Amino acid sequence: MFDRYESGEQAILVHVDLPAEVDREDLSELKLLVSSAGVETLGVVTASRASPSPKFFVGSGKAEEIAEQVKALNANIIIFNHALSPTQERNLEKVCECRVLDRTGLILDIFAQRARTHEGKLQVELAQLRHIATRLVRGWTHLERQKGGIGLRGPGETQLETDRRLIRGRIKNILRRLERVQKQREQGRRARKRAEVPTVSLVGYTNAGKSTLFNRLTASDVYAADQLFATLDPTLRRIDVDEVGPVILADTVGFIRHLPHDLVAAFKATLQETQEADLLLHVVDVADEQQQENIDQVAEVLAEIEADQVPQLLICNKIDKLAEATPRIDYDDDGKPQRVWLSAQSGAGTDLISQALQQLLGPSMHDMTLSLPPAMGKLRGVLYQLDAVLEEQLTEQGELALHVRIADIDWRRLLKQYQEQGKDLEAYIDRR
């Protein structure tokens, strides 16, 4: 057995071109991930295969080439731009005598670095334990079974079995604690629904500019950087939108191609903010050449977490990097906002989001004329308090003719209130 490295800071990257679209990865994205993890890239090994090799993922000759690169450049970790099986990792480590990390393990490591809150740390640990549980055979196959003393001789329990038992216990413990966190989040969501406060969730591909936009809209100082997964822990802030009132804006973790299933499962409580939202602001980096592929990947993850039915508004961000793009709102055939073009970095066009939210979340309004007898003067005062009266006239019959425009929620509340007093407000609507 060779010495195992606890962490790697100088890496050889391995990228394999595969014909199947489902297996294809982006080398430039791997470099961004490695940079975000704080690892220095010493060299890149590329290969082309019709399908992955069951033994090494790459061919045996390419595995030897990687081993030679490791020795020549004195690297202490190999990072694959693909998901490896435990067997493939183990075989590569034997040949290269160096720690091997796959794409999933790299993303998990970045998440572990970014987690700040107690909940975020629990979620990352859960994902890591589920990932490690399939790879426990590594490094322990040389150990014999434990033996007891006199009267206790026997096969005992292998180190591998001990580790599996400890991991199972830890996973159960974390799941119980995350369940409590989820209940607390649900209580908060129920309270917001009772208060009829809409929730808007920012979603998008990682590094699309969600946190920069969040800071711009809420005057917050959430950590934002030009790196993948700069935001991990969800942040909620209240903003005020004209004709809508208070709105809760949620900044969430960015998505990425082939987001590990363990992460999606672990971040269920966090991603539920997206599931329960009234509207999703899908932030897209329009300066990215792969913007359409990124949009498709986000759609895939939203479908996986059952949030694909939530209404979306596309936020075309980073227009400052395009030559002729200007801040604007694109509308669909029904006159509803479909896209908002802006730059979160410079602030150009960010005021248009409030306008779009007003049109998408604004309450349905009732426009009508009420003919009120003098005895209903108190209702007149209430309508003025709600700023619902557009025009007032005194009729020849001595009644007040009020032209009002009132939000549906306020009108329903008044109907219920006067109904309890035995009065039907709809009887006062002038139907002419």
TrEMBL record:
Family matches, as InterPro entries: EFG_III/V, G_HFLX_dom, GTP-bd, GTP-bd_M, GTPase_HflX, GTPase_HflX_N, GTPase_HflX_N_sf, P-loop_NTPase
One GO term describing the cellular component: cytoplasm
GO MF, one example: metal ion binding
Needed co-factor(s): Mg(2+)
Domain Hflx-type G: 198-365
Broad class of the protein's primary localization: cytoplasm
Subunit structure: Monomer. Associates with the 50S ribosomal subunit.
PANTHER family reported in the protein's UniProt record: GTP-BINDING PROTEIN 6-RELATED, GTP-BINDING PROTEIN HFLX
Protein name as annotated: GTPase HflX
Record gene name: hflX
